[in-house]
Please model this.
Amino acid sequence: MLSVKIRVSSGCFHREHSPHAYEMINDYLATCPLDKMQFMEHESGPEILLWLAAISGGITLTANLINLVTAIIRARSEGIKKGDHPSHPVELVIRQDRKDGEIREEMVLRFGHHEVVESEHIEKALTKTFRKFAESQAKPTAPSTATRRKKRRR
Model:
């Protein structure tokens, strides 16, 4: 399973401290179909769970996902203008639950509340990171011969 996490670099991003942002997020969610996605709330920020059996090199991100991520980040900025706090930057993070039980996580972008948020920028960054995940998934997990030799010499 994959997820897209919008988390604050420090502090909280949940309803209690960001009521204006969550009002905008709720309004957006009321009009946004969440096909193969689930919106989850966490104290550190929202997370969008994606149900994909596997990552493929040809993965295409849906407009719904890109628009939802953009709406959340914009709502955070607008909420701060209306009095939400704290105002630390948000980080856009991709997370993958791997078959071996480990979680792989990579920060994709970071936005301060004064920065302009463009959906095209978000789409390019997410696509690049998803492709990187797909490429690493395709590679064998066993260490190479060169790696094994280095370990023996130590």
The longest helix spans residues 119-138. The chain has a mean pLDDT of 84.
